[in-house]
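Pasting two entries for a bug report.
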Amino acid sequence: MTGYNRCVCQKCGSHFATVLDKDAELQNEPCPKCGEKQLKLAGTLSFSEVSGLFRGG
């Protein structure tokens, strides 16, 4: 199973989950909220956080 990492946009402060695990790869991706390419890794997501992403609701 692929691990999920937390990333944060340094421009708008939004947090997201990503499968990317290197800042160099992440810096090529635009923020889903503001569109700026200023994302930075902020650690791995715990099992409960990942489970919450896929829970129905």
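Entry 2 (this is the one that rendered wrong in the viewer):
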Amino acid sequence: MFKLQNFLKRYVWDEETTPYFTRVANLSRSQADSELFFFAIMFSVLFGVATFTSITGQAPYGASNNAAIYCFTIVAGAVLVGTVKNMYAAIYVTSAPVAVILALLLFGFPGKMVLVDQLVLIVIDLVLLRYMWRVITICRVYKMLPHREPENKTRRRLF
């Protein structure tokens, strides 16, 4: 039987696999691995789609090889963050939310976006920019994080 509470605890609010509200100083390596893996998946999918829309011309700004190359390098940086926890790759990936803000300032919002959509886009971008500081910090201290056994050993991993 499907239990919503167990589903939410496992994928949204679990101290071991989704420790987003745990201080970086209190993380274990397995918690950092889970968080950076999920970050790498999300950023890779998001900017992978942006790469293809930039190549095909379906993006609001039309076809742009430069934007496609930039988005692809963000995907590569996110993969490096998720696999080898490279701090410099995390710093480079941080340029993505900044680039979105700059693009909105230079080119404006797409014509069909209403004010609420514009505000939601800005808020999401600012939240991502703030979250990137956490990703950089995790990558910087990753080698110093302790190895701790999970509290519930019978629990399956996130993916």
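Dev reply: Rendering is fixed now. As a check, the viewer should reflect this: The longest helix spans residues 29-56.
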